[in-house]
Amino acid sequence: MYIESIELKNYRNYNSLALEFDKGTNIFYGDNAQGKTNILEAAYLCSTTKSHRGSKDRELIKFDADEAHIRMFVNKDGISRKIDMHLKKSKPKGIAIDGIPIRKASELFGLLNIVFFSPEDLNIIKNGPGERRRFMDLELCQLDKLYLSNLSSYNHVLNQRNKLLKDIAFQESLKDTLEIWDEQFVQYGREIIETRRRFIDEINGIMEKIHSSITGNREKIELVYEPSVPDENFYQELSKNREKDCRFKQTSVGPHRDDFSVKVNGIDIRRYGSQGQQRTAALSLKLSEIYMVKKVIKDMPVLLLDDVLSELDSNRQNYLLNSISHVQTMITCTGLDDFIDKRFHINKIFKVIDGDVFCPS
Ligand code: ATP
Ligand code: MG
After folding, report:
1. Which residues are involved in binding ATP (predicted)?
2. Which residues of 65-92 are buried (b: 16+ CB within 10 A; e: fewer)?
């Protein structure tokens, strides 16, 4: 699959922009704060309905405008589809596929699969468990509609349960109703644990080879899933913690507390890894994601690389650029130096200057 073109109106620092992409490697270069990342963000939005930076819709609209529009043509299996996104300041965004409005964001999933790699991905390795859960959820929601539905049901039940725990503090008799929520909580929670376990297993199968190649067989990497509670005794654990949950007015066990550790040669690199080791692990993780997506959708996703080349040493840059030759890629960078003398094939170059894009040829 690939993105044929994109049009932006009043999006971030763009008044009006229309670009056609190449099926291969597209480079966006320019000084800082010119609008390179904004273009990748718009593409990501059309894939997931959300900004990769977690920005709100109103922040995506040009400062002096009330609405913004994104139009994108995506080609999958030789068929071109049109995605329209209409961003409004105080109302939910409108989305249409081939001119027909969709009601649920999930209807968009699968039309365009994107793997987005930015220096912030290092946070998946370095930061707290929330970042790793977000990673699992973002990936799984793009690939598995059942997971998406289980996760949203789970979060709904979790909110209801937490609300009830707060009410119980004022009205003890409500305790009996916990049971009703707990059954559903465990049912959805188990599905999530099971899917996450399979996901980590599959990613391990792919990542081990990639990481071993990048590090010249020096490092063996493994993700170890650490569920907050094993699925077989989820219900017992939840019951055991009921009194505590009532006291603290929040649910203490369940997939919303899951984590995974990243081990290199058996050592947890979140705690003990060097900066370079952590960065390489993030790179392996992202490259594995490409093949994970491919396995599920039987097609290559689009790869967005935001400012990552300058962060990698020349060996890792080579590995990355060599392994993406068969994927449509959008790369942002401040200069073209990284590509000169390296014989990497660039198909299209865009120069970004203050909300305008030029095609030097
Ligand atoms: P860097 O190399 O530093 O990453 P970049 O070219 O990727 O820079 P972007 O993040 O794409 O830069 O764009 C940043 C520019 O967009 C900034 O100048 C910022 O002020 C502007 N900008 C962000 N949001 C809006 C908005 N809603 N309206 C107008 N301009 C905006
Ligand atoms: Mg940027």
Report:
1. 30-37
2. eebbbbbbbbbeeeeeeebbbbbeeeee
